[in-house]
Amino acid sequence: MSQIQSGPVEPTSPFAEILERARALAPIVRERATEIEANRRLPGDVVEMLRSTGVFRMGFSRGWGGPELNSLQQTEVIEALSYGDAAVGWCAMIGSDSGLYAQFLDESVAKAMFTSIDMVTAGLLFPTGRAELEPDGYRLSGRWQFGSGITHADWVVSGAFLFQDGEPLLDENGAHDSKLFFVPRSDVEVVDTWHTTGLAGSGSCDYVISDVFVPEGRVVTFDTVRNGEGPLAQPEVHMRNMPGIPLGVARAALDFARESIVAKGRMVGDYRTQVTIAECEADFAATRHAVYAALRLQHQVLSGGGTLDDLDPVDRAALPLSRRHAFRTARSIVTRLYDLMQTSSIYQPSPMDRWLRDTSTMCQHVVAQDRILQSAGAYLLGGKPSFALSLGLVGDPRKG
């Protein structure tokens, strides 16, 4: 892997150790990528290898005994894993949210839930379920899609609309209110629906929760931090490391294409080949720089005691925009390299076919869609963003 780093790394720091283990795991999961894809979920031993890297504990604070990696560091770890396999990177990204979610729970509740800082949380945050208000909690039922990593999760978090005596509960703006609900994985039925174009190994199946009581302490919204402070105790923190996946895949495709071309020799002197490789490298470098520059500026403001509101509007909009751009650019890079390598791309021993399908599938996620453009554009013009949380604006506790 090209050793591109977002900044200096202390050789004995928790970040350096986790990053080193992630980089060491990447070639192993690359060798098993076909098996992972055919399995349509991560094999148990791959989950344990991931756990051993420390990736699932990245978001836990030092007060928990965790490494408390900042968002730039988390992104770089996810990037290193995704260089090996996109589904592994995707599940690492999802599973590492446990420590981030813990900050929105009362400390005693979070400690009781996360008895280990290597536990995995999965689920869908968009409110598609139904939660009936009861004394001291809610009765939760529903069916959700896209439960990435749910086959190896310990906890499942799900968005649901609120009801009382069968009637919708409204928020202060008169809209149907919703919250997020944590339930043990044992209370969840997984429905094996994950037959997809790409990211097959992520096991992002539908799941069903039927009439499960959720105590008030395990009900959260992203506008209330109950247990933490600083750069990671922010409403959109769980979206920040997502660009590591497309960046890792794009880098892998670029390295593979260049190495294959040099090894074969016959295309090295071809003008089209040279221009395509250079264009893709330029797009990758600019895209990666934009992601890390936006994250770095955000971290500087938040670690200095500021808030997201202290960011200039253009800088605040750069966070979701650079994230979306990373997904779209990765797909563009892989597509151009796939075409450049022509028929050699279509055979199964080549990873190009899988990368093409993986990047096409990940671009269907909400963070890579036009809704992000609308939200950022509306925010810059003083309008109403349709996905306010992508900008860290609370009042929309949703992440696809």
TrEMBL record:
Domain Acyl-CoA dehydrogenase C-terminal: 247-369
Lineage: superkingdom: Bacteria
Oxidoreductase keyword on record: yes
InterPro entries found in the cross-reference section: Acyl-CoA_DH_C, Acyl-CoA_Oxase/DH_mid-dom_sf, AcylCo_DH-like_C, AcylCoA_DH/ox_N, AcylCoA_DH/ox_N_sf, AcylCoA_DH/oxidase_NM_dom_sf
Annotated ranges, domain Acyl-CoA dehydrogenase/oxidase N-terminal: 29-98
Keyword tRNA processing attached: no
Keywords in alphabetical order: Oxidoreductase
Name of the molecule in the record: Alkylation response protein AidB-like acyl-CoA dehydrogenase
Species: Kineosporia succinea
